[in-house]
Specification:
Strand content: 15-25%
Helix content: 25-40%
Shape: globular
Strand order of the largest sheet: 7-8-6-5-4-3-2-1-9
Number of helices: 15
Bound molecules: S-adenosylmethionine, iron/sulfur cluster
CATH class of the largest domain: Alpha Beta
Length: 374
Amino acid sequence: MSGIYIHVPFCAKRCTYCDFHFSTTFSAYRERMILSLKDELSLRKKEIKTPIQSIYFGGGTPSLLRKEELSSLLEMVYLHYHVESDAEITLEANPENITKNKAKEWKLAGINRLSVGLQSFKNDDLKWMNRGHNKEQNKNCINTLYSVGFDNISVDLIYGLPDLKVSEWKGFLKKVVGMGVKHVSAYCLTIEDKTKLKHDVENDKIIPLSESKQIEQFNILCSFLKEKGYEHYEVSNFALNKNYSKHNRSYWDRKEYIGIGPSAHSYNGKERRWNISNNHTYMSRGTKIKNWYNQEELSRSSIWNELFLTGLRTVWGVSKKEIKRLGGLTNQEAKEIKVLIDRGDLFDSGKAYVLSETGLLFADSISESFFRVS
Ligand SMILES: C[S@@+](CC[C@H](N)C(=O)[O-])C[C@H]1O[C@@H](n2cnc3c(N)ncnc32)[C@H](O)[C@@H]1O
Ligand code: SF4
């Protein structure tokens, strides 16, 4: 099983917190970018040996793609790759781009899953975040998607926002549950370097929420969605009736995938590769530019580190079989496992070591404690 990620590096405007790769001044070269993405799809067709189980249009803002642009990219995928008939084909969509016509186009093109960036239901927050939509559009866009027959819908929310109150957060969760979406991704606000948010925090224009309040909101998120039947299957992801994201699972299960487009990452079990995060350099590749991506062979220690980093984030945990295949735990690591189990942060499922709900809060620092250096 493998996946294809296609990065669409365009956004209508810059959200204050976002450090993903995108440009807001792309109209003059959008056609050239699409040709370039298609060319990379063709160029790398031999890299994937197993059938494609998921195709993911991420960004940036893939919902800005025109009908012909989206279908020509998908045609290129079908021309060069063996795509399973039940493949998950996801498009990330911003609420302001979702109209009945657009949704019909996506359906006709073959998109079968939408990941919608609702983020918040508070207009004041959506405003300082510089989002292009309001809370009314949040509600309407999901109904629009249902009305054209989409039923596999995931929504993104951000908690831990500076003025977000517990009662408001509960209200947002109630709203998304009420919408009947099958999947929720909820992220705690991260203050990323080189963003307007970071600048505003440094200049005391925005006071971040305290860590204890962020933890309180994470706990509410987990308990509320659990009560409503959603399975907390990864630190930030919740699924109803096992509607996991196949695409994200391939990352966490360390399956092979190729990432197409500027800034996109690829992985094949032995190497990692990442394309340059610059639209013009990316589009000039093959002519003047030779170094349009970087690649590294994974050392034994990085394979080990990734096993813990990805495994401990999910309910499937770190497989004991994999640990054994990589030479087993050292005495020190076995002691650390015992400490975590005694503390209630980890449990032994028989086949794997899995973080408990309390452990999940510290997934990254716990996995780091198992990191090895070459
Ligand atoms: C590639 S981004 C955005 C997709 C889409 N363009 C949108 O804006 O809805 C994917 C998700 O990451 C989350 N995200 C991005 N930056 C974040 C930050 N600084 N802190 C927390 N979550 C963030 C948002 O929930 C966002 O929907
Ligand atoms: S959050 Fe989404 S829309 Fe906003 S700048 Fe980032 S990628 Fe673009």
